[in-house]
Model the fold of this input.
Amino acid sequence: DIQMTQSPSSLSAFVGDRITITCRASQSIGTYLNWYHQKAGKAPQLLIYGASNLQSGVPSRFSGSGSGTDFTLTISTLQPEDFATYYCQQGYSTPKTFGQGTKVVIK
Amino acid sequence: QVQLQESGPGLVKPSGTLSLTCTVSGGSISSNNWWTWVRQPPGKGLEWIGKVYHSGGTNYNPSLKSRVTMSIDKSKNQFSLNLSSVTAADTAVYYCTRVASVSGNYEMDYWGQGALVTVSS
Done:
């Protein structure tokens, strides 16, 4: 199985901050990398697919980059509704696997 | 707008079988999409269980393969999950999802609201 490791596991930030979350795959996955966020008690929602493609309806403050084994998710200007847990997921091989999550909390 | 809704018992006895159904509305289950199940134990991360296609083709997580069966009912626009020989470790919120077909990145673009299943006697 491909292991996905996110860092940090949690971070605290102010509204308006720029934040970056990283995701590392245990082997090369090309750009088969997707990002989701999950608010408390809700289902995850797709933000980015194919490492850098913004899902329809997702605000442009979200962006993704990377290829191979190292990927990043950036939120340019953190909004109150962005405080959530973020997960990366590889779509390269079965079983599909997720990172352990990064919880973004209000400072 | 595609919507997915999980249904099934919220409590299953140890050694029993967990059975859930996902009803798809606003779209056809016979479309060019995989349909999947993902679970999340309380306070933990996400685990992919497997996928099913409208042809009946399936692919399961090897860690669960011996206990999992997925099926599809095109007449009802539903797909189902059966997980046998459950233990407390199978207690989780179970999500059904749709895999977007276009990009090939296996991104899950629609999710159900989730169904909490507790394994307990």
Remarks:
- The first strand of chain A starts at residue 4 and ends at 7.
- The radius of gyration of chain A is 13 Å.
- Chain A is about 0% helix and 50% strand.
- Chain A touches chain B at residues 1, 31-34, 36, 42-46, 49-50, 53, 55, 87, 89, 91, 94-101 (CB under 8 Å).
